[in-house]
Amino acid sequence: MEMKKQKHVIVLIVALSLVIPMLNGVDTSAKGMQDYHCSKVIVADGTKYKISQIAKDVHDIDTGEKMTQKLKNKKIKWVSKNKNLKIVGKTFTAKKIGKYKLIGITKKKRYTIDLDVVSKTPKKDLSMVEYATIQSGSDGTVVKIEEQEAIRNLCALINEAKFKFNYKRANKGPMVGWNYAVHLYLSDGTEQFKIVDSTPKYYYTTSRANEINRYVDQLFKMSANVTG
User: Fold this and answer.
1) pTM above 0.85, yes or no
2) Cβ–Cβ contacts within 10 Å for residue 57, how many?
3) Helix, strand, coil % (nearest 5) of the chain?
4) Using CA atoms, how far apart are residues 160 and 208, in angstroms rounded to an integer?
5) Under DSSP, is residue 118 helix (H, G, I), strand (E, B) or coil?
6) Edge-to-edge strands of the sheet including 34-44?
7) Is 153 helix (H, G, I), strand (E, B) or coil?
8) Which ranges constitute the DSSP H helices of 29-98?
9) Of 129, 142, 149, 192, which one has the greatest count of Cβ atoms within 10 A?
10) For the chain, where are the E strands, in sequence order?
């Protein structure tokens, strides 16, 4: 009887080892599959994306081959090992910012797409900003802005701006060339916020861009004349 119990335990362990990797409906660790590791795609949290929408923006990181046609295969089942990446059919939504892997499986092939999920609307608290620096993109000159009225006006412009994630801009890569980079600091030197040509990072846009850029240009030129 003892031997039979041991055999039952062994059979159960083996069965569980086969079932657990397939809880999502697909065995993502199957051997003998052809693997394609795709390039990164930047998306926003809380936004639904179609796989076909991002397929045109990824390539095989080993060969550089565009993956558009391969990822359109209707037989691909898309899964994720992270509960914060919700997949429904051929669409996905990331619940939180972070880095995820979107995995596509067929009988013989596995596609892995790296997702960099950023905030749809970047958070900003500029209430305690004490000073700023502005760097010129043309020659690298840096000026420091400490005049409190100028700081208040600059922070007010940024606070009033509604920054919106722009998928196309984000996935073209960092922009080449820029006019001004603005760093906002607390009194102890901690950087609180940064914008380059009116926006935080290169994948946001705002309708207040021209207004912010004009004021930054004004501050830079006034300060450069004073310190120069």
Assistant:
1) no
2) 20
3) 30, 30, 40
4) 8
5) strand
6) 34-44, 109-118, 98-105, 77-79
7) helix
8) 51-55, 68-71
9) 129
10) 34-44, 48-50, 77-79, 85-88, 91-94, 98-105, 109-118, 131-136, 142-145, 164-165, 180-185, 191-196, 204-205
What are the residues whose beta carbons fall under 8 Å from the beta carbon of 108, sequence distance 6 or more? Answer: 32, 33, 34
- Give the C-alpha distances (Å, rounded to integers) separating 213 from 46, 106, 123, 141, 196: 30, 50, 20, 17, 9
Q: Which residues partner with 136 through β-bridges?
A: 180
**What are the tokens at 11?**
């059979």
pLDDT block averages, 10 residues each, the chain of length 228: 51 47 50 88 96 93 92 93 95 96 95 96 92 96 96 96 93 80 97 93 91 97 75
Cα separation, 226 vs 143, in Å, equals 10
Helix (H, G, I), strand (E, B) or coil at 212: helix
How far is it, in rounded angstroms, from Cα 68 to Cα 130?
A: 48
Q: How far apart are alpha carbons 201 and 120 in whole angstroms?
A: 12
As given in the structure block, the two tokens for residue 227 are 């310190």
